[in-house]
Amino acid sequence: MTRVGFMxxxxxxxxxxxxAESMGFEVMAAPSETIVKGDDKExxxxxxxxxxxxxVCFLTSTAVxxxxxxxxxxxxxxxxxxxxxxCGSAVECLRRQGIKASPEADRSGLLVGAAGEMPEGPEExxxxxxxxxxxxxxxxxxxxxxxxxxGELDWLAMTxxxxxxxxxxxxxxxxxxxxxxxxxxDNVKIAAMDKSTADVLEELGRKPDLVSEEPTFKGLLxxxxxxxxxx
Length: 231
What we know:
This protein has helices at about 15-20, 40-50, 60-70, 75-80, 90-95, 140-150, 160-175, 175-185, 195-205, 215-230, and strands at about 5-10, 25-30, 35, 55-60, 85, 110-115, 125-135, 155-160, 190, 210.
């Protein structure tokens, strides 16, 4: 049985672990971030931007989920009238809500994402619909890092740029950068859920062994499964 490890936000980790187990994987899962909803005024910026005819770009799938929680059934109609684009897995999240989004991110209008993680720009064109705080090193993450060191994990499934940065950072802190990168290079295969995650992995010095063509968690797991079956 293939053993896969991943980090997910506290909102997603339980369902993600169940999904991976249902697909036949042995799972090691650890929380990456705790998500806190942004102020209502941040959500109001979306309706204001649409009213002004400005394009709306969702930077993360979590931003989409937070907006869905906030607007509920009115989410799709709230965006009606403005061109919508999205990054990575956010495209698929929007599609599941019946919202067509271009995968070519248009950053000329309103950007919707996390506080402290968006590029600089006019405040009225930056909707910080949530804040993400690092979950820290708990027992599940510690066990996953030890498994990487010992070569006991087949795959690390990197589900977002922040998850990649967190995991590499935790490994560097625990083992030192030289040993950490040796373990990550030689002891485990790494898969990226989308291009933006793959780009961050390359910035960190570790080209992924696999980039999922379908930018969803299920698509990432299926890509790992397919590659294992073919090898």
